[in-house]
Each structure stands twice: as structure tokens, then as C-alpha cells.
From TrEMBL:
PANTHER family documented for this protein: TRANSPOSASE (PTHR10948), TRANSPOSASE INSI FOR INSERTION SEQUENCE ELEMENT IS30A-RELATED (PTHR10948:SF23)
Keywords, in A-Z order: DNA recombination, DNA-binding, Transposition
Pfam families: HTH_38, rve
Gene source species: Alteribacillus iranensis
Function statement: Required for the transposition of the insertion element.
PROSITE patterns per the UniProt record, alphabetical: INTEGRASE, TRANSPOSASE_IS30
Protein name from the UniProt record: Transposase, IS30 family
One annotated GO molecular function: DNA binding
UniProt-listed NCBIfam families: transpos_IS30 (NF033563)
Coiled-coil parts of chain: none
UniProt similarity note: Belongs to the transposase IS30 family.
Residue ranges of every copy of the Integrase catalytic domain listed in the record: 147-311
Amino acid sequence: MSYQHLSTFERARIETLRSLNYSIRSISKMIHRSPSTVSRECRRNTVGNNPYCSETAQCRYHKRRRHCHPQGKWTKDLAQKIDEKLDLTWSPEQIAHRLFKGSLSFKTIYRWLYQGLLTKNVAALRHKGKRQRSKETRGRFNVGTSIKKRPKEIRKRKTFGHWELDSVVSSRGKIKGCLATFVERKTRWYIALKMPNRTAASMENAIRTLHGVLPERSFQTATVDRGKEFACYPTIENDLKIDVYFADPYSSWQRGSNENANGLLREFFPKASDLAKVTEEELERALALINGRPRKCLDWKTAHEAFEQEVLHLA
């Protein structure tokens, strides 16, 4: 049977039993370990004349693990490169495919995280899982062009310049500050603009702002839900020549790119945040990190790289 390192629970039992003056041999029988293992554990992790502390022992264990040189591909330089990308909110899968081109598996990176072989720990990973959706409180309307009439090439993401739009709000209550969010469907490039409130006038200003800074032909259509902030659609269609398509009610999957991107943004600004207090610098940093992550759906290019490539083709 291969040797297994002492667990946190076992160290806690050793601390308790030592405080009750149990002998090394008695403790070893109670935790089903050899006396030499318990003796070595107490000797290595007792500081001065202080009694054995399981928390201190566990910290010293993780520190030794980080500084050891395990067999295999792990090196200090490799660990540093991985830590740098984790700082940029990349996932282990994104790191493995973009940085190492498959020569290092993402499962290995996860294992190193759990083993304490990286400076970062598991808490550095982005949170996964389904989120509880709050009940929709916006008013809605039933006019406008249905998504069913949207050209097939837009749905299949074959052409550039087609966007999904939405709004992200602060915590429920009197806080009105919110964000207008935009995702280009083909490249997944994501942008968010601050709005003072969730009105049609504010959304129209945000759309005009983005349209004004984008190259010609890079904002051709918009797919939105039927929230009242998009009641400005006739002006957008007439003045900016942007075709607006409305998703079906309760069909967020029809705007999946925007829903996903908004979830990524919430990692930086949780629902309890007051978006009115978010600075432009904080927002720009979050967007840069999101657009700077390699994407599996883009063959491990970043959204920023894919967007820039499409813009060059417009010239």
C-alpha cells in the first residue's frame, strides 16, 4: 500500500490527543498510523516549546509542498507562468490549450492547484454552476421584428457585425445605476457602458455611443429581449440603420452569448454591487480580462484577437 500524507482531520486528532497527554504509540493506534509517522509529524511541526498545533502543521506542510520538486513536468518557471494566467482569471483549460498547446493537460493544472504546488489555490478559480435568476420586474412590449425573421447566417455566427444586447442592474432597491452590455456574436467580443438608469433613453444613448466608435459595417443588427429599455428600437433602426430582432419571452438561450458574458461580468461586480459606484477604470479592467481569455469556441483565440481580425477584414 502506498504512503498517504496525513490529512487535516488526522492532524487535528493528533493535536487533541497530545493536549490530553496521550503517548505517541497510543495516538498511532487511534489514527491507524505507524508510531514513526506520528513521531515525525510532531517533531517536524512543533515550534520551540509550544505545543503541537494542527493548523500550523498544515500550513508548514503546504509550504513544503510548494517548494518540493515533484517528478513529472512541474518546475518553478512553469508554476509561475500558470499563476500569472490565473491572476488574469484564465481557467486551467484555457491555460493548457493556449499557453501549452496541449503539451500540459488542464487536469494536471487542477491537480497542482489541489496539491498546493501553485501559489494560487482553488479559490482563485472562477465559480461555476447555475445561478438563481431573480424574478423579472421590467415592463415589456410585444411589437418589433421577431427573432424568427432573423437571417440564418446570423444565427449560425457566419458573418460579423451582429450583436446581442442586454442590461445589467445593481442590487434590487433604490439604486438605479446599471450597465448596457453588448456581445458581438461571431467573435464574442464584449463591451459594457454605464447608464444612469434602465430607461429607453439611456439605452439609446449607449447604443449610439458604441455605434459611433465602431468601424463602419461592424454594427449591422441587434438581438434584444422585450424589456422596456429597448422601446427605443424604431429610432435605432431609422437613424443608425441597425436591424433590431426581439427574442421570444422567457427564452434567454436565444441570446446565450450575452447571458454568458453577463455572468462573467458578475464575477467582478456581484449582484450586491452598486454599479453607479463602479469606476470606468474598474469596468475597463474587467472587460479587458474577459476579452483577453482564450476561448475554446474560437479555437483558443481571445475575443479581442478575433474581433481585431474581423475589423481588419472590413478595410
